[in-house]
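During the no-cost extension, the postdoctoral fellow (Dr. R.K.) reprocessed legacy sequence entries with the updated structure-token encoder. One reprocessed record is reproduced below for audit purposes.
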Amino acid sequence: MESTIITIIVGVVALAAGIILGKFIFAKDTKKQIEEAENAALNITKEAELRAETLKKEKQLEAKERFVQLKAEHDREVMQRNQKINETESKIRQKEQSINQKEANLDKQQKENEAIKENLNRQIEVVNIKRTELEKHQEEHIRRLEKVAGLSAEEAKAQLVESLKEEAQSRALSIQQEIIEEAKQKANKEARKIIIQTIQRTAAEQAIENSITVFNLESDEIKGSIIGREGRNIRAIEAATGVDLIVDDTPEAIVLSSFDPLRREIARLSLQRLVTDGRIHPARIEEVVEKTKKQIEDQVMEIGERTVIELGIHGLHKELVRMVGRMRFRSSYGQNLLMHSRETANLCAIMAAELGMNPKLAKRAGLLHDIGKVPDEETELSHALLGAKLAEKYGENAAVVNAIGAHHDEMEMQYVISPIVQACDAISGARPGARREIMQQYMQRIKDLENLALAYTGVEKAYAIQAGRELRVIVEADKVSDGDSEKLSFEIAQKIQTEMTFPGQIKVTVIREKRSVNVAR
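Re-encoded structure tokens follow.
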């Protein structure tokens, strides 16, 4: 390749020299010019040869360097491969040694096992021989015993079994009675413990529902538009919503009165739309009330869906979800029905978990236990029986149906979660602040508590404190001893429990104090 390049370069130079020479000939220059041209051509030729020789040497050097580099790389690769081969051979040798060692150990162990097996076979043969001899001796011994006792072996066994059976039955009855007595002693303690733990783990709201709603106005001038000419607007609102509108001298306010919170909410939203729109007349009132009712229905469904999602209850029928949403607009003794049902559901789940039962099923029954209070149609059935009927209609579990129907003892309890729902319903309704209580009834209950304690001999004073949750009884130290104080506390508590109706529990504390007074003069 290098000689070819040199030949091409020489040819090009010769061609260039010929062209120059021809130019000089055609120009009919002087001989001197021709000689100069020839000299120039010779010089060019020499330079080309020198350059060609230089290029040839450079290419040779490059080829040598490339050869050296490739040889070094090849040697390095060969060395690496040899190293890997050596490592692989070393590993193989190690594995062969390990396998050989394991084979030797296996052979040794096999030989030991064979020796042990032979030894065991010899021992088994000896044992079989001794067993045969023992059976013979045993049969001989039994014949002798039967001869002495005058009873056969079967008769003796029957008598022994009968005596052991009678002894076992008597012991079993005794143990059973002890277990029952112990269970009775511990049952109340454990039940109180579980109920206290359940209540402590639940945060609940206070009673806040009212029977009236105050609708605030921007100015008193709007009252005239709401009343309308000759009162036709206010009559149309009351007829469409079923709510009484009280328009009095209260500045910038109208009172909506109804015992049905759902109707009050429909009336409030309708009034808000009418006042915002400004068009208030009977036809417009009926249109707005209908739209508001549809909006409330959607809101009821949304509240029900949000409630069951927050409680983690799945697979509830849509009608039951809607009834759960309607609970938001119902109250009992001032306690919101939805809040009461949610609280009962959480209490049921916690109590069921404490007892090792299914908390999800208990929570489901607790949420649905009062759905009979929000029916679409009024019936003569009690809310517990109606709720059980609705739950059964919409495919609820039999345990849930029974818990709903039995939470007021109107149905026989057939499942374990039924008493749990009943207890949690009572806890939610009876806790302090859950429901409103008429002041006269409250004062009368406080007075009855104090009079009940004062009726006992030796009681000097009695005070009902902590909203009637505790009764402090002060006795005369001369008439009542320390032992009598404990007895008196128990008797008063039992009498309160049997003769009075009260929410929660009442603590009875008997205080006996001995004072010695002297005057120093």
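Residues 194 and 354 are 7 Å apart (CA to CA). The longest helix spans residues 31-149. The remaining legacy entries will be reprocessed before the final report is submitted.
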